[in-house]
Fold this sequence. Notes:
Number of strands: 0
Number of domains: 1
Amino acid sequence: xxxxxxxxxxxxFLNGYxxxxxxxxxxxxxxxxxxxxxxxxxxxxxxxxxxxxxxxx
Length: 57
């Protein structure tokens, strides 16, 4: 999923540039889903580490 977020950035040398120019709604949906997924994964891992740390202490 991280690859989806970075590959679809709308920079000229990445695939996201072509997609955002031809199909902006599709790009927004894919990129938004990727950002949401990465964000959720980050917070789940973070909260899990905090719970494990509290159990050890």
